[in-house]
Specification:
This protein is of the alpha/beta class and about 170 residues long. It contains four helices and seven strands, in the order βαβαββαβαββ. It has helices spanning about 10-20, 35-45, 90-105, 125-135; strands at about 1-5, 25-30, 55, 70-75, 105-115, 140-150, 160-165. Strand 2, helix 2 and strand 3 form a beta-alpha-beta unit. Helix 1 (about 10-20) packs across helix 2 (about 35-45) and helix 3 (about 90-105) runs parallel beside helix 4.
Length: about 170
Amino acid sequence: DTVVDATMGNGNDTLLLARLAGENGKVYSFDIQEAALINTEKKLREAGVSNIVELICDGHQNIKKYVPQGIRAVMFNLGYLPKGDHSIGTKADTTIEALKRSMELLMDGGIIMMVVYYGGDSSFEEKEAVLEYVKTIDCRNYSVLVCDFANQINCPPIAVCIEKVRK
């Protein structure tokens, strides 16, 4: 499979996707911070899967510059790089643009999995904008599931899953 980690961070999801994609698969992984690429490259090399991963130092909104049509899955973790600079994080406008472009690239039955982290140093504005945007996605072409914790405090993460309808 061809898959995308739209928010590389420290490479945990990139590594998982590389293992799931298989030796003939391809993973594209995006981050705007050089530290994320360095951390991820080391992790992938140690795991022996760096050969199927392309690390891209660019914003996820530019996904169509790098990734071909027909991807199986895209993962997003919104917020900032864990243990990184909290002033650098995902933003509503670029995240929504990345979602739109990712949906265009999905194969039928492909999915986008997004975890929305917010509160504290992360953006309430991004959370609100993303949750409003997904409500507007055409249900004839995509199914959207939003899942949050009903009994947790301190801004628990919200999961969003978008599946492209099989034609």
